[in-house]
Write a structure and sequence with these properties.
Helix content is 41%, strand content 21%. The chain starts with a helix and ends in a 20-residue tail after the last helix. The strands form 3 sheets. The chain has a 5-stranded mixed beta sheet, with helices on both faces. Strands 8-7-9-6-10 form a 5-stranded mixed beta sheet, sandwiched between helices. The chain folds into 2 domains: 184 residues, Periplasmic binding protein-like II (D-Maltodextrin-Binding Protein, domain 2), CATH 3.40.190.10; 97 residues, Periplasmic binding protein-like II (D-Maltodextrin-Binding Protein, domain 2, 3-Layer(aba) Sandwich).
Length: 315
């Protein structure tokens, strides 16, 4: 049977639509949540450039107030993937939350320090021993900065057990140092630059360096059940985020607009917030934080980093 021309064209158009619809239906929904920092930029890049779609995902990313909130949302089923500081994930692990790390996010490298121990410009504080009994502000108690501060004091001749850590937003820490309310604070960009430019503070060192030259500071994670049910999805996500991280590392200026939009900051401040994006899971980069967290009783006891990592990611 030969179709009339109009019917044939209509049939041809319909057949062209079907594959497109089928292709759209094949995309795997991937809902993710992350704290607002540069370690989220590879995910944003993969969305913006179509890299996620190329690897079969319909991806979205929502802001989380912090890593603990991201972990709760993933466990509750609101998201398949989350990003959090490793310290928050350690705490979640020892509380029995069924989470596994599937990819690194932000890495620390001593050649590119991102945090600074700030003191008043005329402060007599010079070494870890000088900090005995002193009051230091951190962004959150028992976070990676409070842990690094304790480690730094002990490593530089002081006694971290005498340290008084208090929680103050970084936006208010420089003023608290200047007026003598606190002795020091751990600051990152964009809060560090204006404090230095004011002349009220100086930088004593990088407290995070007390962990060594390299470690993984934040990571992408999912639930154990999701990883077990969806190994192909997890593997495709790991591949996508690794490729995106490698590109972001090599193109910080070109990807700055993504962070500016996500973090809702001025483009001029973005380049001061950039971090090294992790591209490889290494248990040693997690173990150093686990050991320190156990030493300072942030977690009850030491455990093997492999217990926290999706085994498929280590192959």
């Amino acid at each position: 049977m030969i179709l009339p021309r109009r019917a044939f064209l209509a049939s041809l158009a319909a057949s062209a639509v079907i594959p497109r619809l089928a292709q759209a239906q094949e995309l795997t929904p991937l809902r993710a949540t992350s704290a607002i920092d540069d370690a989220a930029t590879p995910f944003l890049y993969a969305m913006d450039t179509g890299l996620f779609r190329k690897n079969g995902f319909e991806a979205s990313l929502e802001r989380a107030t912090n890593g603990a909130a991201a972990a709760s949302a993933v466990v509750g089923g609101s998201f398949e993937i989350g990003k959090s500081s490793v310290i928050s994930l350690l705490s979640a692990h020892v509380r029995g939350l069924p989470l596994v790390i599937v990819a690194p996010a932000g890495d620390y490298d001593s050649a590119r320090p991102s945090a600074a121990l700030a003191v008043r410009a005329d402060s007599p504080l010079r070494s870890g021993a000088d900090f005995n009994g002193k009051t230091v502000a951190v962004s959150a108690l028992n976070d990676s900065f409070s842990l690094s501060m304790r480690t730094w004091v002990d490593a530089h001749g002081g006694d971290a057990s005498t340290l008084k850590l208090i929680e103050i937003p970084m936006s208010a820490s420089a003023a608290a140092i200047a007026n003598g309310r606190i002795d020091a604070a751990v600051l990152i960009q964009p809060f560090l630059r204006p404090a230095l430019e004011s002349g009220a503070i100086r930088v004593l060192g990088d407290p995070v360096s007390a962990f060594g030259n390299h470690h993984t500071d934040s990571a992408w994670f999912t639930t154990t059940a999701f990883a077990q049910r969806n190994p192909d999805v997890v593997n495709r996500f790991m591949r996508t985020i690794r490729d995106a991280a490698a590109y972001v590392n090599g193109h910080p200026a070109e990807t700055a607009y993504l962070l500016a939009k996500f973090a809702m900051v001025q483009p001029s401040d973005v380049m001061k917030m950039r971090v090294l994006q992790g591209t490889r899971l290494d248990t040693a980069n997690f173990q150093v934080l686990i050991d320190a967290a156990a030493r300072y009783k942030i977690i009850p006891e030491r455990f093997d980093a492999r217990d926290l990592i999706y085994q498929g990611a280590l192959k």
